[in-house]
Amino acid sequence: MGRTKVVGIAGRFGARYGASVRKKWKEVMERRYAKYTCPYCGTVTRMKRISVGIWQCPKCGTTWAGAAYTPWSIEH
């Protein structure tokens, strides 16, 4: 997968949809799949998104409400 070094996760779109749209989508998806600290058990891991705004810790199984693409709101 050496062809997506610069574009990263947005490389799957190729030349479609425009550069600015792909860059914005890439930022959102990188935040979504980043590692976060569980507010309940303190584990640093990737949280599982059950649905839009519903997040679950894979270690302790705690479920809570957060933002659509991050486990909590940005200004939190």
Give me some keywords for this one:
1 helix, 76 residues, elongated, 18% helix, rRNA-binding, single chain, two-stranded antiparallel ribbon, 3-stranded antiparallel beta sheet, RNA-binding, alpha+beta, ribosomal protein, Ribosomal_eL37/eL43, N-terminal domain of TfIIb
SS-based class: alpha+beta
What spatial order of strands do you see in the largest sheet?
A: 3-4-5
CATH topology of the domain at 16-65: N-terminal domain of TfIIb
What distance separates the N and C termini?
A: 36 Å
- Major sheet: size, sense and barrel closure? 3 strands, antiparallel
Please identify, by name, the CATH architecture of the domain at 16-65.
Answer: Single Sheet
User: pLDDT below 50 for ≥5 consecutive residues: which ranges?
Assistant: none
Overall, the morphology is elongated
Kindly provide the name of the CATH class of the domain at 16-65. Mainly Beta
**Helix percent band:** 10-25%
Averaged pLDDT: 89
Radius of gyration: 15 Å
GO molecular function, one term: structural constituent of ribosome
Protein name: Large ribosomal subunit protein eL43
Subunit structure: Part of the 50S ribosomal subunit.
Family: Belongs to the eukaryotic ribosomal protein eL43 family. Putative zinc-binding subfamily.
